[in-house]
Write a structure and sequence with these properties.
CATH architecture of the largest domain: Orthogonal Bundle
Helix content: 40-55%
CATH class of the largest domain: Mainly Alpha
Strand order of the largest sheet: 6-5-7-8
CATH topology of the largest domain: 2-methylcitrate dehydratase PrpD
Largest sheet: 4 strands, mixed
CATH superfamily of the largest domain: 2-methylcitrate dehydratase PrpD
Number of helices: 20
Order of helices and strands: EHHHEEHHHHHHHEHEHHHHHEHEEHHH
Radius of gyration: 22 Å
Organism: Marisediminicola antarctica
Mean pLDDT: 96
Shape: globular
Number of domains: 2
Distance between the termini: 46 Å
Family: Belongs to the PrpD family.
GO molecular function, one term: 2-methylcitrate dehydratase activity
Structural class: alpha+beta
Oligomer: single chain
Catalytic activity: (2S,3S)-2-methylcitrate = 2-methyl-cis-aconitate + H2O
Number of strands: 8
Protein name: 2-methylcitrate dehydratase
Length: about 500
């Protein structure tokens, strides 16, 4: 990897185009380096993972709304159109990217990468796939595009913090998806450069979407970034230009939205000819909850199994979760969000409340993407009572490990201290989730397939499940016609009781 020094430049400094971060990203996108077998296997895993969580979200409100919007936009000229999960016909690619992006993101249940910033790199797949289907790309081109999308997003996330300035993490997704589409289509660096700038410029929004009373927009935000990336590439291909320098300009993103005019970053990007392996740094979720809750769910399950006395919440005086700054302030009591302790809060809010999540996982010994969030589950009196006695505290060592660049040290868990009514203290800790590559039960192809089949049960016909899994595992060999089959159709009758909401379209 090469480190690129990125800072704000005054307009009279005339920063050369080839020295701008957006251009350096474009150069990564046009590098024709081969995809390694290990990376190929992981890309297939993540296609399976995304499709798995889609099956579990097809009847949920935000997904139904987004799908109905896509259904109102027939195939645009210039291509064959793109598949929308749950619909049999094809639609305009930017709207397919939108609908499929919402379906992938709705349950907060797919892959993650955490460093200076947060991210869900699997959000790159819907827009890149939509363009591939529309323009008749083959599986190898799609694979190369997705590899670039992951690489660019992971590298930006390693270097540039957005949340520190309350900018939503999807500001790294617009550029990465644009770069991935550029790789897939074999576009020149100049076109990709302009698309990256436009995609970034249109996707810098505040983090209020993940604060307080979290709304359904949380699922839409990355889908919007993907849709903007598709549109940015279209404009750039038509010769339209972007604000330049988008990152380094004196009125640019870094100067006014991030660390300010004196800011400087060291952004890692692959050297020319170096394999793009960023996807191998990412990890998926076994549980449908914010990633920083994954390890703590596993620890709560361990408490449930090893200490049956904890299942009776009346015996617990207090639970303190000692954890990183991020976990304490984003999903813990350090966020100072009363909604994180509100039994009537939205699902989106509850999946960002570690006091709630830990309480339910401790009591039930499991975490389920529907049952664990059900209103009757959240409102159970014994759960509410214990929930109010669960707090988080920042621990400097867990914060240090969260930011460590050493994979053997990097941790997303914490130490939990439970005090019983007789003064007994039970203490245990966990560094990474069981499903993490360094966890107790790392996810491999078998686990991805099991996740898909489990979530597809009752949603897809068995034949549809096996059709998709057979197809996706041949991703690099897929013809353009076969690639169109990378979609899902639900069992007959699944949508019968669903009424699509009406809007403008």
């Amino acid at each position: 990897m090469q480190l690129h020094h990125v800072r704000v430049h005054r307009s009279d400094e005339n920063l050369a185009r080839e020295d701008q971060l957006a251009w350096k990203i474009a150069e990564v996108a046009v590098d024709p380096v081969e995809v390694t077998p290990e990376v190929t296997e992981m890309v297939i895993n993540r296609f399976i993972d995304n499709a798995a969580v889609v099956t579990a979200s097809l009847t949920r409100g935000p997904v139904v709304a987004a799908r109905s919007q896509a259904a109102a936009h027939p195939v645009s000229t210039g291509g064959a159109g793109s598949s929308v999960f749950g619909l049999g016909e094809r639609h305009s690619p930017e709207w397919a990217a939108w609908a499929n992006g919402v379906a992938v993101r709705e349950l907060d249940y797919h892959d993650t990468f955490l460093a200076a910033e947060y991210s869900h790199p699997g959000d790159n797949i819907p827009p890149i796939l939509a363009v591939a289907q529309h323009l008749g790309c083959d599986g190898l081109a799609l694979l190369r595009g997705v590899v670039t999308g992951y690489e660019v997003q992971v590298d930006l996330v390693k270097a540039i913090s957005l949340h520190k300035h309350k900018i939503d993490h999807v500001a790294h997704l617009g550029p990465s998806a644009a770069a991935g589409i550029g790789t897939m289509l074999g576009l020149p660096a100049e076109t990709i450069f302009q698309a990256i700038g436009q995609a970034l410029h249109t996707t810098t929004a505040t983090r209020q979407s993940r604060k307080g009373e979290i709304s359904s927009w949380k699922a839409h935000a990355p889908a919007f970034a993907g849709k903007m990336a598709v549109e940015a590439v279209d404009r750039a291909m038509r010769g339209q230009t972007s604000p330049t320098p988008i990152y380094e300009g004196e009125d640019g993103v870094i100067a006014w939205l991030l660390d300010g005019p004196d800011a400087a970053y060291e952004v890692p990007l692959p050297a020319r000819g170096e394999a793009k392996a960023g996807i191998l740094d990412t990890y998926t979720k076994e549980h449908s909850a914010e990633y920083q809750a994954q390890a703590l769910i596993d620890l709560a399950r361990r408490f449930h199994e090893n200490h049956p006395e904890l299942r009776d919440g009346r015996r617990i005086d207090a639970v303190v979760i000692h954890t990183s700054h991020h976990t304490h302030n984003v999903i813990g009591s350090g966020a100072n969000d009363p909604q994180k302790y509100d039994p009537t809060a939205s699902r989106e809010t509850l999946d960002h409340s570690i006091p709630y999540i830990f309480t339910v996982a401790l009591q039930d010994g499991e975490w389920h993407h529907e049952r664990s969030y059900a209103p009757e589950r959240a409102g159970r009196p014994d759960t509410v009572a214990l929930w109010q006695r669960v707090t988080t505290a920042e621990d400097a060592e867990w914060t240090r490990r969260y930011h460590s660049t050493d994979p053997a040290e990097k941790a997303f868990g914490g130490r939990v201290e439970i005090t019983l009514d007789d003064g007994t203290r039970i203490v245990d800790e966990i560094a990474v989730a069981d499903a993490h590559p360094l966890g107790a039960r790392p996810f491999a192809r078998e686990q991805y397939l099991t996740k898909f089949r489990t979530l597809a049960d009752g949603v897809l016909e068995q034949a549809e499940t096996e059709r998709f899994l057979e197809l996706v595992q041949r991703l690099p060999q897929l013809t353009p016609a076969e690639l169109g089959g990378l979609s899902l159709m639900p069992r007959v009758g699944l949508f019968d009781s669903i009424t699509a909401p009406k809007g403008l379209f």
